[in-house]
Specification:
The complex is a heterodimer of chains A (235) and B (369).
Chain A: E1 2-11, E2 14-24, E3 29-33, H1 40-48, E4 53-60, E5 63-64, H2 70-75, E6 78-81, H3 93-100, H4 110-120, H5 122-126, H6 137-149, E7 155-159, H7 167-182, E8 186-191, H8 194-200, E9 203-208, E10 211-217, H9 218-222, H10 225-231
Parallel strand pairs in A: 3-8, 3-9, 6-7, 7-8
Antiparallel strand pairs in A: 1-2, 1-4, 4-5, 9-10
Helix pairs in contact in A: 3-6
Chain B: H1 2-41, H2 43-74, H3 81-98, H4 107-137, H5 146-168, E1 185-186, H6 190-197, H7 216-238, H8 240-250, H9 252-257, H10 262-288, E2 290-291, H11 295-310, H12 315-335, H13 341-355
Antiparallel strand pairs in B: 1-2
The chains are: A alpha/beta (235), B mainly alpha (369).
């Protein structure tokens, strides 16, 4: 479904992605793990069109994305809960969620989708008239995810959904990710919390300084000696 | 970086304020008995200055809307905005001249001419403003902050010179005895003429015996400003494009990610701002009855101050700031000395910013980390 082939992305002169190739198949959860600065978020930004690759291709269901402007990519069914959440601080929770559906052409199921998102995140329902900027960090994370879901995306990109959250909330968020996948959403998950990510993903890629150094099924990665040492904290 | 700026800005603002208070205080204080006496002698004069202040404030407010919208969305002070307003005045004057409205005595014809001039001024203002964005700001969108600012100042000079050349064309701008493009041109008082020719008194309070003048011109600018502000607020709050504007203003990357075409949203913002400046141009021409190639400078400065005073980026704030500055200027002109008016306006701005750095209605709900 989603395929990156030999993608090179630069920030000025900094070579951030050095030939990333990966695939995400329909219905999968695929995770990208790696330490800070490995290029995980840059990969997601490149798929979304916020950063343009210098060379390489990004295709979604056969459509080439890498030359399209970001707003057209959103219209093709790519939605993201980005690094740093990027919610709209002076818009209400409801307006934030409405903006999620901005690129959708078909709004017939809009009401049901909104109900569904609010059922997934009951906290958002309680805060529906509050401004986004007044929410707590965890609530903002839920809002960012809810907003991405309102787009009814073909593929959902999640950037560090567990960042800065209390352990209980992390479990909740991961339960929701699993539930979304069971409902048929394809997910590309970027995580520092490699153990959690590998426990719900089907497959995974390990990123190091802009290159993929390992890829396998999640189960095999979890048992890989190098992964255990570097990312799972097993001695 | 912002915090260091604020650290230095506060003491500097404080020093300037103290300086201004010392400078202006004695003048105002000396005048207090005089002012009190003149209010006691002629209390209706106070109301008169209120009316004048509201009407002038309404024009300032409409121009301020353009500043505040553009700043809200790309954090750029569009220095050329005041000059777009000036072009609006000349567009209106030229349209009125070419349609024969300036010389007409027929109230119906004058009315139609004014409506046509309004449409043309709005279209020209909107197009000019969007063109300025396309040529001078968009290529610099990812450049350091200072670059578009300098290019905005450059655009201001260019548009001013267009105005200077325009004003010198006697087939476009009737001279009424003045010569050359540099001179102030008369903008005939068409609204009063229209009313007189309908056998109505343009002064709506003439028969009230209050000794007040509240003319059809005052009514028109105040009502029009109110309608435009409410309309704009509703537009930004409730339409899809309005919401896209707010989203773009609050987080540009997130807006792109959700499918918002940033370029179109920014163009639309400049179109609306420019259209409002064009409308303000016609209103100001009809109200103040003059046109001058350099009038955009002072109007721009006052409107920008109004936008900052109300909380830049905030539509209601721009309106509030506009009316406040209009009133302040009217009272200063009337009771103190017109020479001190600008000093009072800016002293008030400094004082308010000292206590409310984000302006009167500025919000400070930043995004949490």
């Amino acid at each position: 479904m989603l395929e990156l082939k030999d993608v090179h992305t630069y920030y000025g002169n900094i070579h951030a992605l050095k030939g990333i190739s990966l695939t995400v198949n329909d219905g999968e959860i695929v995770t990208l793990i790696g330490s800070n600065g490995a290029g995980k978020s840059t990969t997601l930004r490149t798929i979304q069109g916020l950063n343009k690759p210098r060379t390489g291709t990004v295709t979604l269901d056969g459509v080439q994305l890498e030359k399209l402007p970001a707003h057209e990519i959103a219209g093709l069914g790519v939605a993201q809960s980005p690094e740093g959440r990027m919610i709209f601080p002076r818009m209400t929770v409801l307006e934030n969620l409405e903006m999620g559906a901005y690129a959708r052409k078909d709004l017939t199921s809009y009401k049901d989708d909104l109900e569904h998102v609010l059922a997934l995140f009951p906290r958002l329902k309680e805060r529906i008239t509050q401004k986004g900027g007044t929410l707590s960090g965890g609530e903002q994370q839920m809002l960012a995810m809810g907003r991405a879901l309102m787009a009814k995306p073909k593929i959902l990109l999640l950037d560090e959904p567990s960042m800065g959250l209390a352990p209980l909330l992390v479990e909740l968020i991961f339960d929701i990710i699993k539930q979304l996948n069971n409902e048929g959403t394809t997910i590309l998950l970027v995580e520092q919390n490699a153990l959690m990510a590998l426990s719900i993903a089907h497959r995974g890629y390990v990123l190091q300084t802009g290159e993929i150094i390992l890829s396998n099924t999640a189960e095999k990665l979890k048992n890989d000696e190098m992964v255990q040492k570097a990312y799972l904290g097993v001695e | 970086m912002k915090s260091t700026l604020q650290k230095f800005a506060r003491p500097i603002i404080a020093i300037i304020t103290i300086y201004l208070v010392l400078l202006l205080g004695p003048i105002a204080a000396l005048d207090i008995p005089v002012i009190a006496a003149s209010i006691a002698k002629n209390p209706s004069q106070l109301l008169q200055f209120l009316i004048i202040g509201l009407a002038n404030g309404a024009i300032i407010a409409i121009i301020a809307l353009g500043y505040t919208m553009v700043y809200g969305i790309i954090e750029l002070i569009n220095f050329a905005h005041g000059d777009v307003y000036m072009i609006g005045v000349f567009t209106a004057l030229t349209t009125l001249s070419l349609t024969g409205t300036l010389k007409s005595q027929d109230p119906v014809r004058i009315g139609i001419g004014i409506v046509i001039a309004l449409v043309v001024a709005v279209v020209v203002g909107a197009t000019l403003n969007a063109t300025i964005e396309r040529l001078a700001y968009r290529p610099l969108r990812n450049a350091p902050r200072l670059a578009p600012l300098i290019s905005a100042i450059g655009m201001s000079f260019i548009v001013e010179n267009i105005g200077l050349i325009w004003a010198g064309q006697s087939w476009l701008v009737p001279s009424f005895g003045t010569t050359g493009g540099g001179a102030q041109k008369e903008f005939p008082d068409l609204l009063s003429r229209m009313f007189v020719n309908m056998n109505m008194n343009p002064d709506l309070l003439a028969s009230s015996g209050l000794g007040l003048r509240f003319t059809i011109k005052d009514l028109l600018v105040i009502v029009l400003a109110g309608v435009l502000m409410i309309g704009l607020r509703q537009f930004v709050q409730h339409t899809k494009l309005g919401k896209a504007m707010r989203a773009t203003a609050q987080n540009r990357d997130a807006a792109k990610m959700l499918g918002i075409d940033i370029d179109w949203v920014i163009t639309a913002t400049f179109l609306i701002g420019g259209g409002l400046a064009g409308a303000a141009g016609l209103m100001a021409g009809l109200y103040n009855n003059n046109a001058w190639w350099f009038m955009g400078f002072r109007a721009g400065l006052q409107s920008f101050t109004a936008a900052v005073l109300g909380g830049i980026g905030n539509i209601t704030g721009a309106m509030l700031g506009g009316f406040l500055i209009g009133l302040l200027a009217a009272f200063s002109d009337g009771y103190l000395n017109a020479r001190w008016t600008n000093a009072w306006v800016f002293a008030t701005l400094v004082l308010i910013l000292l206590f409310r750095p984000n302006g009167l209605l500025g919000e400070q709900t930043g995004q949490k980390a």
